[in-house]
């Protein structure tokens, strides 16, 4: 076997590998001989099948197996002899091969860069922290009470207002034709919740119990039902009753609804939950600061192939957001600008990933099986009633399991770096801590 490095360009390497016809023939003959000793064919005693018969029956399959194995073995050898760490699977291209001749192939690889972590002790970070106030606890309890509200009839003589629940019978028609699914009886419609066609709920404002109204609306142009796309529609609506939500009282009885002994115990539990949420937000914000500083301080070359894969994932998600109308400001940008912006984000992510991986390797940071199991249990809890299927999915999908392991590893490495960095705390308001919460989580 002859291995020649034919190209060097940054992290990219190309090799030409030649495996001699003699080596191939020896391996083929060896495997055929193994088959001759073990194969059983009608008319021949075990181990007595003529070589010519074995070659006739099995030569093609054995040759393919030998060539595949030779490429795999020689490519690993080429990298191992040179101490090269590849970022992705090598790309193999057979350049020439004829039976009874040499096999020549080209191997292109991208290498992992040499990463030299900086001095983490020189990093200065400011961790925002917020106190859990009595007001925030009271607000949380109020929301829990609202979640356990009951509906009561409105007895005062007045028209419907936003927030009221109108108990209605309705029937809709398009050009006088009643279509399936456009009618209902005793439907409790919360006014202002935006659950019906745009304009429907607004036209019920001011209606009183016992009143009949004709409501004219136009369905959106992108409505899923083909017949209703952009259709002008008339709904005949009878308002049978007006109701309102009355929150439960914040007392010991409410606490018992949530399995607590008393309101005081419930108040303590809510305070602890809010405290935990604030702590998570504080960590996300200091983690974002840390990653920003790490990105600024490390500028090594990254494998283009890894950036391509990361960018493709980002771009696919962006396309889905653009399609669903949830892309925000990105919807107004040109495709070229978006590709430039998100390519830079992909490169940053790959660079940070390689840096954190190297820090973890140097400090022997490991993810234990118990940690993976806990993450798996938490994932299964997201799908009540389907826990068994979730466990089976991860059991049979190594990549999915790795997707659980990766964020645990990242957090452990980040915690290691934070222990070395200079982190000071700054007291902020709850509003400052929770500002742009989703954006902070995504960036981190």
TrEMBL record:
Location of this chain's protein in the cell: Cytoplasm
Gene Ontology annotations of biological process type: 'de novo' cotranslational protein folding; cell division; protein transport; protein unfolding
MF term (GO), any: ribosome binding
InterPro entries associated with the record: PPIase_dom_sf (IPR046357), PPIase_FKBP_dom (IPR001179), Trig_fac (IPR005215), Trigger_fac_C (IPR008880), Trigger_fac_C_sf (IPR037041), Trigger_fac_ribosome-bd_bac (IPR008881), Trigger_fac_ribosome-bd_sf (IPR036611), Trigger_fact/SurA_dom_sf (IPR027304)
UniProt keyword Ion transport present: no
The enzyme's E.C. designation: 5.2.1.8
Record's catalysed reaction(s): [protein]-peptidylproline (omega=180) = [protein]-peptidylproline (omega=0)
Keyword vocabulary terms for this entry: Cell cycle, Cell division, Chaperone, Cytoplasm, Isomerase, Rotamase
Entry GO CC: cytoplasm
Pfam families membership: FKBP_C, Trigger_C, Trigger_N
Domain PPIase FKBP-type, first and last residues per copy: 163-243
Keyword Chaperone: yes
Entries under SUPFAM superfamilies matching the protein: FKBP-like (SSF54534), Triger factor/SurA peptide-binding domain-like (SSF109998), Trigger factor ribosome-binding domain (SSF102735)
Family of this protein: Belongs to the FKBP-type PPIase family. Tig subfamily.
Protein task: Involved in protein export. Acts as a chaperone by maintaining the newly synthesized protein in an open conformation. Functions as a peptidyl-prolyl cis-trans isomerase.
Domain observations: Consists of 3 domains; the N-terminus binds the ribosome, the middle domain has PPIase activity, while the C-terminus has intrinsic chaperone activity on its own.
This protein's name: Trigger factor
Organism the protein comes from: Azospirillum griseum
Gene name of this polypeptide: tig
